[in-house]
Amino acid sequence: MKKPTVSALHTDKYQITMMYAHWKNGSHLKRRAFDLYFRSLPFGNGYAVFAGLERVIRYLEELRFTEEDIAYLQSLGEGLDPAFFDMLRSFRFNGDVYAVPEGTIVFPEEPILRLEGPIMELQLVETALLNFIGYQTLIATKAARIRHITGKDVLMEFGTRRAQEVDAAVWGARAAYIGGFDATSNTLAGQQFGIPILGTHAHSWVQDFPSELDAFRAYASAFPNQTVLLVDTYDTLRSGLPHAIKVGLELKKQGKTLAGIRLDSGDLAYLSKRARKMLDEAGLTETRIVASNDLDETTILNLKSQGAKIDSWGVGTKLITAFDQPALGAVYKMVARWENGHWEPTLKISSNPSKVTTPGRKSVYRIIDLKTGKASADLITSVDEKIDESKPLTLFHPQHTFRRKKVKNFTAVSLLRPIFSAGKRVYELPSLTEIRSHHQSQLSLFWEEYLRILNPEEYPVDLSDQLWDTKQKLLKSIYDSIRQENGS
Ligand SMILES: Nc1ncnc2c1ncn2[C@@H]1O[C@H](COP(=O)(O)OP(=O)(O)OP(=O)(O)O)[C@@H](O)[C@H]1O
Ligand SMILES: O=P(O)(O)OC[C@H]1O[C@H](OP(=O)(O)OP(=O)(O)O)[C@H](O)[C@@H]1O
Ligand SMILES: O=C(O)c1cccnc1
């Protein structure tokens, strides 16, 4: 048996404990529905970019317990019934999955995945799904913020050395590419996903030669058509740039172009302006300026406002570690139980009203104004509801219900697509290029006030009347029965 890329044991112990208890109880095959969503937007951004689905699909397709996994669980000596382990030997994912495609712009509270299937299976996968989607969505969103302020500049993901281990580096590079980066320095990500790989050279290259000029000449002779020289090893303006220009002119004599120089320390605005002037005065107008050094969207925006002459940005640590918000806080909540031949909505109450879950199996629609082509709101409905596009639609804020707006002349685009049906994949995986362009076309659906990186407007995500009523009725019936039990 082929070993799954991600082990079935990549889960929290309590999932396996619940699987066992359900199995003992005879309830492990009962059909349930769960929603996966997040409660608030990362980085103060106005939207998130969904990523992680490909990893989820591969995981669910390969999911099984190997003999080693079973031996490990048995070795815990918890006295579990041996027949449970026999059942695990034939364990497969048999559920239905609906998800938004990767690259889609998504908002808090809306289900980005809905799973339906035997409770035992849906419990097991919770942890891994949150793990994949939380991280990749964060990185894609951070990348989109950086892309938003860099226009057509070249963006290179440089974070592998600072990432939280291998998977984060590789899947993070992919997420950054979905969010709008052009390339990664990670060769494995290039091989695995076909992401363009780019890079320059390190300070050690320069240090390894008797002089900086020797180092630059040797590098240029190895890569005459793609030489980018790192100019800050000793002194950017007095040594690095003059040497790079000398080598650039030597390349020019051979009919070649010095592709670029890289600045990696000091005042990047000042140094890039000086570098541009020196390069231009030497006639090296086509030589691009690359910058790196602890960059993020804020630094880059500042550098741009100072008139920095930077064409290409290498961004590492702050992107790949989601430095300013290291967790998305996605959640996975049970929303319905199949009982007596029908789906019964269920919810979880919290003392924090915004954490009360919305019951039932749901669809998510993006309401697009046909006149402007822009998104007006997202509407969450019950799966059995139909939206009548020929009639005006009244939308209201689910918490501040007095906030209402009427939309006419719209189309309602369903966001969730069928991914698995009874454990079989029914979704054709798009190529990474298709995912990236899907993300770009998603951006064009939104007004700039939702896309700006500082204090964006809150995009409306509303509940249908039917769903809102179901939630209120269920809340009331739960409170009524608690009161009855307590005799109050
Ligand atoms: N003109 C500028 N305006 C705002 N921030 C800048 C400007 N120039 C550089 N920065 C940023 O300031 C920080 C400088 O960090 P730091 O002082 O640690 O680096 P350094 O001393 O220049 O280089 P090294 O990496 O060698 O330590 C980096 O995040 C860099 O991107
Ligand atoms: O700054 P980041 O956004 O993380 O980008 C990656 C950094 O990695 C390299 O630094 P290196 O490992 O040589 O260390 P340094 O910090 O001393 O430059 C490179 O020169 C960048 O500065
Ligand atoms: O290619 C580069 O310049 C590079 C790659 C990774 C990290 N820092 C720089």
UniProtKB/TrEMBL annotation:
Its EC number is 6.3.4.21. GO terms for biological process: NAD+ biosynthetic process via the salvage pathway. Keywords: Glycosyltransferase, Ligase, Phosphoprotein, Pyridine nucleotide biosynthesis, Transferase. InterPro entries: Aldolase_TIM (IPR013785), N/Namide_PRibTrfase (IPR041525), NAPRTase_C (IPR041619), NAPRTase_N (IPR040727), Nic_PRibTrfase-Fam (IPR007229), Nic_PRibTrfase_pncB (IPR006405), Nicotinate_pribotase-like_C (IPR036068). CDD domains: NAPRTase_A (cd01570). It catalyses: 5-phospho-alpha-D-ribose 1-diphosphate + nicotinate + ATP + H2O = nicotinate beta-D-ribonucleotide + ADP + phosphate + diphosphate. SUPFAM superfamilies: Nicotinate/Quinolinate PRTase C-terminal domain-like, Nicotinate/Quinolinate PRTase N-terminal domain-like. Transiently phosphorylated on a His residue during the reaction cycle. Phosphorylation strongly increases the affinity for substrates and increases the rate of nicotinate D-ribonucleotide production. Dephosphorylation regenerates the low-affinity form of the enzyme, leading to product release. GO terms for cellular component: cytosol. Residues 155-336 form the Nicotinate/nicotinamide phosphoribosyltransferase domain. It holds the Pfam family NAPRTase_N. Residues 361-471 form the Nicotinate phosphoribosyltransferase C-terminal domain. One of its GO terms (molecular function) is nicotinamide phosphoribosyltransferase activity. Pathway: Cofactor biosynthesis; NAD(+) biosynthesis; nicotinate D-ribonucleotide from nicotinate: step 1/1. Residues 9-133 form the Nicotinate phosphoribosyltransferase N-terminal domain. PANTHER family: NICOTINATE PHOSPHORIBOSYLTRANSFERASE. NCBIfam families: NAPRTase_put, PRK09243.1-1, PRK09243.1-2, PRK12484.1. Belongs to the NAPRTase family. Catalyzes the first step in the biosynthesis of NAD from nicotinic acid, the ATP-dependent synthesis of beta-nicotinate D-ribonucleotide from nicotinate and 5-phospho-D-ribose 1-phosphate. This is Nicotinate phosphoribosyltransferase.
